[in-house]
Amino acid sequence: MASKHLWLWSGLDDSGALQSGTHWNENRDSVVLLLHQRQIHLLSLKRCPVRRALWQAEHGCAVLQQLATLLQAGLTLPEGLQLLAEQHPARQWQALLRQLAQTLEQGETFSAALRQWPDVFPPLWLAMIRTGELTGKLDECCFKLVSQQQAQRELALKVKKALRYPLIILSLTAAVVLAMIYLVLPEFSAIYQTFNTPLPALTRGVIATADVMQRCALPLVVFMALVLGVMRSLRHHPGWLRYRQRLLLATPVMGQLIRGQRLSQIFTVLSLTQRAGIAFLQGLESVKETLTCPYWRDILQRAHQEITQGMSIAAALKESGEFPTLCIQLIRTGEVSGALDTMLYNLAQHHSEQTQRQADGLAAVLEPLLLVVTGLIIGVLVVAMYLPIFHLGDAMSGAR
């Protein structure tokens, strides 16, 4: 995908009619050769800009949902893709859908065709599409994928909404604190130094802290820039990703949200593969392909090895320590009763609903905590600045 470009062409066919269209290809010469094979006399060919915003998940979900509806109506995959290409308003999606249809007509599977576009179709999509191909229920898997993506998007929006207010308040608090430190405190300190009276310990501590912050402002900014640079350079390093995931999972509120989201994704794919009659170990392989975090991939890889060696599914998942007791109990019940697919589906629904409820309650948890922290910071600064005023009367009378 990174080496392909979008080309806009126009030309005349053998009958002299004007034709135009778009095409994805690596270079200009390949496009010219392709059009020559189609007996198009090229008039113009130019490279079009690609809008990365159109590759976001919501656009792909809309296309996938429409495609699943067409499949349910009885159309074949190439026919559905061609019809969507004619109706889509964006040129880059038109060219992509036509190219996918051409790839399918050449004998490729749908999942293999999507794999050539990693910027558009993430690993979860490929695994779900492959599951649909194996089971013959591609339309059902597409609908499940769209539903899962919509739930994930709603969760992200709820978290952003819950964090927006605290971030605004914290930003305003930081601005007020910096204004007090750099503008107000120096004036108060100069006034207090004109009187021969000791300052309260709280005021001396705040002034000393402000002096340190003023002297260390530049080194602190440089240090933070270096930390951000190092974190940016390590954002794809497997070791750092594993360590960061463990830290996030250990946080009180965000850890529960992240764990619930991951468990919902894992059990959704496993339930689909089980209900389609695919072996559990093969379903685990499909789940591993949907996960981008090495930490969770390692957990499933160890579980896969232990199950292969004869351990039960519940015992293998329990060894990881990341699956709650409820998950282990239901999976054990499903193994014994032969209703593992139902239990996995129930777990997927449970974790999805629980994560949504936790996201809804995130604001209720953060706002009181934020008020306490903000009140303490502003209160300490105000008290520290105005506490010496009560002693200034005695100091002024003594000076007379």
From TrEMBL:
Enumerate the InterPro entries for this protein. Answer: GspF/PilC, T2SS_GspF/T4SS_PilC_CS, T2SS_GspF_dom, T2SS_GspF_sf
Q: Which UniProt keywords apply?
A: Cell inner membrane, Cell membrane, Membrane, Transmembrane, Transmembrane helix, Transport
Organism of origin: Kosakonia oryzae
* Entry similarity comment: Belongs to the GSP F family.
- What GO terms describe the biological role, i.e. biological process, of this protein? protein secretion by the type II secretion system
Q: Where is the Type II secretion system protein GspF domain?
A: 64-186, 268-388
Q: Write out the GO cellular component annotations.
A: plasma membrane
Enumerate the subcellular locations listed in this protein's record, separating them with semicolons. Answer: Cell inner membrane
Membrane topology category: Multi-pass membrane protein
Q: Which top-level group of life is the source organism from?
A: Bacteria
* Protein's recorded name: Protein transport protein HofC
Is Methyltransferase among the key words of this record? no
Annotated TM spans? 167-192, 212-234, 369-390
